[in-house]
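I'll show one example:
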Amino acid sequence: MIRAAATWAGTALLATALTACVATPTHVSRAAPSAPHRAPAREQVAVRSHSAGSAPRTKHVSAPPNRCAHNRTAQKVIVSIKAQHLWMCARHRLVRQSAVTTGMVGRWTNTPTGNYWIQGRNRNTTLTLNTGATYAVKYWIPFDAPLFGFHDSSWQKFAYGSPKYKTDGSHGCVHMPLKAIAFLYRWAARPTAVHIS
């Protein structure tokens, strides 16, 4: 069990976390409304494989379908745990999508589901687990502060979108590739809704 204090736009929040990501931010650029309690639609990705004595083969993998079609919110981030994928929507227009890694399957490590708001945007901060382990991240974007948020994960050794998240995923946060989270950091400059299912 750990206790961590974080400051969000001048308001001190004290929270108890079991294994969730807890940030020690150095700066918060803005606050959003309080969270409620709890590219193209199809993209072809070329994957090359080589075997001894054979020519390279290309396998095409389709990205999950566009989830923005029925969105009515000005800006919304939609995360599918099952698909390990994220969509950034401006109403029903898809702005960007990315594979992600969510929380390991477990009582204290699952990524929470429901509707939230992005509550701040931080750069160059440290996440601390109850074990005392720390992780330096370039981007921290909380949606259920101070426990859960989006962040980069330079230490992750498997591909985003992989089913390995079930045993080797996050402690509840949503890991994103560096380019995708840098885009989210810039794009989410105004109130942005988050839906995780």
